[in-house]
Amino acid sequence: MNILITGVNGQLGYDCLYEACLRGHDVIGSDIQSSFVCADGVGSVGFCYMQMDITNTEEIFRIIHESKPDAVVHCAAWTAVDAAEESENRKKVFAINAQGTRNIAEAAKAVNAKMIYISTDYVFDGQGTEPWKPDCKSYQPLNVYGQSKLEGELAVAELLEKYFIVRIAWVFGLNGKNFIKTMINVGKTHDTVRVVNDQIGTPTYTKDLARLLVDMIETDKYGYYHATNSECRPGEYISWYDFCVEFYKQYGLATKVIPVSTEEYGLSVAKRPFNSRLDKAKLQENGFTPLPDWKDAVSRYLREANL
Length: 307
Known about the structure:
Helices cover 38% and strands 18% of the residues.
């Protein structure tokens, strides 16, 4: 299969590129940078890299028309949630996450390609305690980032029939910044850290997610899905505080983690969802292998990340 992957210099796009190449697919990796930022291990796999600005409609149509992919995995996005709230950034956020996604979807439709769009639990209002179902349409984003990703979702569903919309949360991976890397660096220089304990969900290791996404693109089981690493016990979701305590323990840091409420923490510009629980049952219902439990994912990540 000929697969075009956007955002390959980011955490998820990077792992999708590697996974698709290992399975023998013909892969085109793209990003806005002029070259691929290669981390350990990926330099050995063969693929074609193309610089592509997803806000440039003409450029997208030219590249996709010339490469004629069978499938597009769209990982490129604006992901800086707090920065998205700044008035000078909002136009760019929607140009990337909303219009950029529409551009990709229209180009995919022109060559009859499948498409995976990576979305987020932020399309919901984050209230309550029940896990969000993948086919729920009760959209009510709390912030600019969530609204922009929702508009991307709506564009994909409007334009295409052969699409997967996959919502994820709390992402960590090898190629880029994430909560684990940041907090371990902080923990090395501080005796205590404060972490919120009233935002509940489960994290997503991009290496595990990449495996699932390539599984998906090899099928025609289209639709909306939720995909994070599994709870260690059914229904046992965690807070960011629980997450931090666990990876500090696995890493061997003695730094004390102090639980605080979102209000007490007080540093976020954008509103965050309290309820990031995502119902992932649809994966198994459609024959996909769920992601392993999150503690296992943290263990493997810490071995591989060399922090």
